[in-house]
């Protein structure tokens, strides 16, 4: 046993003896004094005396000089005359507050602070006559924490279960029970982009300056869940949602720490330029679109902000905004760049010459106060066709009947006007008839749909007209005034290009209305909070020939069993861009274009859910086209939708309705559409017969359409 240990045992024994003596009010020396030097009882001394009752000591005498000062400072040579005492046992667990007062002892320094007397179990002290120099430091508040091991005499802790509530953590390196002091969250003061994550760590600091990782034990929180959240399944993993600032905090065992997380605008990840493989005749232009995909999986049209470039400016140049102008036959790479992110497409310029323009829809009839948008399709010497709508100069021969605003005519008065499109010296035109037909009703579709919060629904307004003899219908979606009865539950757009697009905002319902010329149609939109379960891509499998396209659709399925078409809202991607690309551009979302023979997985993603479809591109060549229905007959007011099916060299067939170029031999009898979304739709204008043709890669098919009164 070391000399320091022996000294501590001697001092402990002395305190016990002193307390035992001082606990009697009639003790002439150690009786307690109040502030004036008077004696008073000391409960703490009695408690200490009780703690030592197993160590009776008799005839203990302390000889000290007398002094009138009851409280004195200094260190005195205290002589303690004790007769030999055998078998003195000091209780190892003293829980007492000892108030030491020395009566008439000069220059005795008693430093009263805070001290902890470590238990010394079963110590025998044989006290004989001794002279001891005593310095009493910090005797008040003598207490023993009996809940844990004694580092002086115990072997040390091995786990937290051996530690008490005041020092609940076991430092297994030292065997000491220590208290928890503070929690720190690292890394500190972070900045991430929306859509990305950052892993934080919670570190506990203990009273012996050691540390420990409590990331998995802590409760994590974000002060601004609109800006960032902490994944409950992955402790400390924060996800940036929207630009803003949040404090990420970790709490454990009554302690907490935190740090600031700044969420910045989402980062641009990639740019897709569409169309990916364009072919233009010399002298025409091609509008390219740049669509950016960001770190939060959102997409954005970057056409107006990207920096455009052509790799061969002698073949084609491209202006800000993505409009390419052809200069000579050849090939060039068109690129769009934002910061350090780029995307590209190929433009092939052919030497073909424009020989005619077909304006569609041809020979169409509309009612007053309604509109019609036209498209110009140019035919070239190599038998190819090209959309020259944006290259043409448009005109109405009688603006009093129907003036033009760009390519859209509005019926004002009953009569007929010619709508013309001119490119260079080539002119194409079609008559537009405005009747006095009366709008009797408007049908809004889809009827009574359901959409969860945050989703969109595209509504269509169809006008029903009558002139007293014939009943006709017309798409009035861009012409009507759209409204929502509850703007807090759902909003609906009247902006050009997005007319009728409703957005679900809050759980509830709203009546969606379409109004024109005093006539209103409506339907009910129900907004729910049902979670998104899955995305279905249709068709699930498709096989197309090289050089053709395939249109895919996306349907969202929700937990409440409802479903919603979300083709325009999802983000489309292809697993093999060398086989097929898929468009994210407005108006052509989900349209896959073949690049080479092979297979590609087409994926639609939205809000963490995704669905896939398999697309196979074959090297087969088109052999023939079949048009259905064959040789139909229709009433004057009834449109006929035609379908074109292609047969290929590998004996497969494919619906190529959207890939062929449609034409009507007599547009005074009926017109047929090549516009996206209505390809192959023939509209009768007069009674008679016309030849309907479908052309693709120099393969032509035809059928007769008869229009009856």
Secondary structure: elements and pairs:
Layout: H1 3-22, E1 32-33, E2 39-40, H2 43-51, E3 61-63, E4 77-81, E5 85-90, E6 110-111, E7 123-127, E8 130-133, E9 136-137, E10 169-171, E11 176-178, E12 180-186, E13 190-193, E14 197-199, E15 201-206, E16 211-213, E17 219-222, E18 228-230, E19 237-240, E20 244-252, E21 255-264, E22 268-274, E23 277-281, E24 285-287, E25 289-294, E26 299-301, E27 307-310, E28 316-318, E29 323-326, E30 330-338, E31 341-350, E32 354-360, E33 364-367, E34 371-373, E35 375-380, E36 385-387, E37 393-396, E38 404-405, E39 408-410, E40 415-423, E41 426-435, E42 438-445, E43 450-452, E44 456-458, E45 460-466, E46 471-475, E47 481-484, E48 490-492, E49 501-504, E50 508-516, E51 519-528, E52 532-538, E53 541-545, E54 549-551, E55 553-558, E56 563-565, E57 571-574, E58 580-582, E59 591-594, E60 598-606, E61 609-618, E62 622-628, E63 633-635, E64 640-641, E65 643-648, E66 653-655, E67 661-664, E68 670-672, E69 681-684, E70 688-696, E71 699-708
Parallel strand pairs: 6-9, 13-21, 23-31, 33-41, 43-51, 53-61, 63-71
Antiparallel strand pairs: 1-2, 3-4, 4-8, 5-7, 10-11, 12-15, 14-19, 15-16, 17-20, 18-19, 20-21, 22-25, 24-29, 25-26, 27-30, 28-29, 30-31, 32-35, 34-39, 35-36, 37-40, 38-39, 40-41, 42-45, 44-49, 45-46, 47-50, 48-49, 50-51, 52-55, 54-59, 55-56, 57-60, 58-59, 60-61, 62-65, 64-69, 65-66, 67-70, 68-69, ...
Helix pairs in contact: 1-2
């Amino acid at each position: 046993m070391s000399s320091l240990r022996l000294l501590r045992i001697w001092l402990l024994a002395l305190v016990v003896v002193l307390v035992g003596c001082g606990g009697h009010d009639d003790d002439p020396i150690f009786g307690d004094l109040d502030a004036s030097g008077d004696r008073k009882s000391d409960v703490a001394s009695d408690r200490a005396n009780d703690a030592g009752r197993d160590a009776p000591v008799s005839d203990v005498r302390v000889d000290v000089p007398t002094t009138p000062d009851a409280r004195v400072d200094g260190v005195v040579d205290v002589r303690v005359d004790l007769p030999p005492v055998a078998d003195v046992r000091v209780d190892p667990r003293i829980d007492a507050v000892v108030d030491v007062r020395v009566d008439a002892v000069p220059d005795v320094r008693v430093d009263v602070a805070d001290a902890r007397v470590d238990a010394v179990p079963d110590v025998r002290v044989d006290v004989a006559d001794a002279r001891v120099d005593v310095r009493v430091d910090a005797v008040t508040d003598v207490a023993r924490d009996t809940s844990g091991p004694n580092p002086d005499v115990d072997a040390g802790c091995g786990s937290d279960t051996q530690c008490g509530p005041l020092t609940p953590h076991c430092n297994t390196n030292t065997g000491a029970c220590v208290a928890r002091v503070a929690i720190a969250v690292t890394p500190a003061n972070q900045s991430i982009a929306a859509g990305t994550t950052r892993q934080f760590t919670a570190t506990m600091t203990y009273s012996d300056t050691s540390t420990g990782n409590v990331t998995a034990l802590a409760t994590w929180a974000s002060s601004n869940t609109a800006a960032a959240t902490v994944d409950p399944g992955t402790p400390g993993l924060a996800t940036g949602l929207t630009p803003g600032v949040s404090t990420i905090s970790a709490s454990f065992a009554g302690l907490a720490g935190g740090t600031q997380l700044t969420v910045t605008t989402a980062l641009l990840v990639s740019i897709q330029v569409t169309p990916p493989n364009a072919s233009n005749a010399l002298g025409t232009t091609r509008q390219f679109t740049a669509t950016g995909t960001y770190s939060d999986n959102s997409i954005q049209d970057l056409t107006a902000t990207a920096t455009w470039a052509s790799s061969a400016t002698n073949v084609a140049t491209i202006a800000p905004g993505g409009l390419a102008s052809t200069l000579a036959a050849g090939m060039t790479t068109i690129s769009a760049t934002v910061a350090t992110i780029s995307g590209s497409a190929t433009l092939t310029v052919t030497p073909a010459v424009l020989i005619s323009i077909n304006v569609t829809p041809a020979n169409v009839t509309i009612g007053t106060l309604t509109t019609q948008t036209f498209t110009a399709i140019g035919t070239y010497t190599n038998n190819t066709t090209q959309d020259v709508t944006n290259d043409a100069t448009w005109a109405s021969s009688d603006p009093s009947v129907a003036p033009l605003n760009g390519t859209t005519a509005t019926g004002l008065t009953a009569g007929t006007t010619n709508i013309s499109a001119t490119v260079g010296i080539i002119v194409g035109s079609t008559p537009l008839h405005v009747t006095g037909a009366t709008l009797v009703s408007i049908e809004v579709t889809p009827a009574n749909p359901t959409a969860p919060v945050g989703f969109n629904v595209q509504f269509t307004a169809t006008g029903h007209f009558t002139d007293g003899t014939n009943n006709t219908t017309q798409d009035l979606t861009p012409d009507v005034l759209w409204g929502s009865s509850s703007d807090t539950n759902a909003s609906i757009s009247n902006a050009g290009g997005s007319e009728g697009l409703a957005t679900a905002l809050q759980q509830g319902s709203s009546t969606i209305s379409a109004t024109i010329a005093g006539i209103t149609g409506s339907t009910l939109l129900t907004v729910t909070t049902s979670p998104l379960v899955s995305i279905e891509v249709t068709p699930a499998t498709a096989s197309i020939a090289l050089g053709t396209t395939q249109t895919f659709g996306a349907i969202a399925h929700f937990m409440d069993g409802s479903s919603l078409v979300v083709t325009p809202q999802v983000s489309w991607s292809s697993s093999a861009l060398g086989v097929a690309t898929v468009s994210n551009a407005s108006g052509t979302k989900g349209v896959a274009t073949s690049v080479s023979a092979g297979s590609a997985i087409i994926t639609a993603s939205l809000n963490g859910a995704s669905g896939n479809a398999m697309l196979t591109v074959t090297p087969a060549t088109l052999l023939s086209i079949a048009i259905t229905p064959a040789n139909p007959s229709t009433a004057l007011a009834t449109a006929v939708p035609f379908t074109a099916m292609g047969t290929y060299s590998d004996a497969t067939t494919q619906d190529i309705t959207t890939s062929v170029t449609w034409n009507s031999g007599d547009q005074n009898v009926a017109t047929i559409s090549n516009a996206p979304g209505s390809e192959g739709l023939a509209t009768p204008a007069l009674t008679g017969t016309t030849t309907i043709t479908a052309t693709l890669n120099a393969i032509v098919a035809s059928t007769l359409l008869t229009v009856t009164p």
